[in-house]
Write a structure and sequence with these properties.
Tscrpt_reg_Rrf2, DNA-binding, mainly alpha, Arc Repressor Mutant, subunit A, WH_DNA-bd_sf, two-stranded antiparallel sheet, Iron-sulfur cluster regulator IscR, DNA-binding transcription factor activity
Length: about 130
């Protein structure tokens, strides 16, 4: 199983914001430097995270980005849902667009795996990630 760079970088971005929670906004260039990530890529990742209500942006000289909620209220699943979607395969979506779905022999295993992974990722908050790094 692979996660895209978008998810890995998005999670690292969110960890930096969690470390800075209640200290004010962070600029993307600072996050890029701290995490050794490409600034242009972070600029693309920020937009969907903001649209999902996970981060908020502050304009101005001392502006930047910050978490929209406390780190303990944002899970790795929340980030993954924004960056990848919440379905492991199209079979596990609420309305699968597959002609084979009604008689597919393998759909149950994909649904089960998706459920297990989702439940486990929901248990891992940003707070837990930054506590482990301390």
């Amino acid at each position: 199983m692979k996660l895209t760079t978008r998810t890995r970088y998005g999670t690292r971005l969110m960890v930096e914001l969690a470390k800075n929670y209640e200290k004010g906004p962070l600029q993307l260039n600072e996050i890029a430097k701290r995490q050794d990530l490409p600034l242009k890529y972070l600029e693309q990742i920020v937009m969907p995270l903001r649209e999902a209500g996970l981060i908020k942006s502050v304009r101005g000289v001392k502006g930047g980005h910050m978490l929209a909620r406390p780190p303990e209220d944002i899970s790795v699943f929340d980030i993954l849902k924004v960056t990848e979607g919440d379905a492991l395969t199209p079979c596990t979506e609420d309305d699968p667009n597959c002609d084979r779905f009604p008689h597919c022999e393998t759909k149950d295993v994909w649904i089960k795996i998706n459920k297990i992974i989702s439940e486990e990722l929901k248990k891992i908050s940003l707070n837990k990630l930054i506590e482990k790094g301390s």
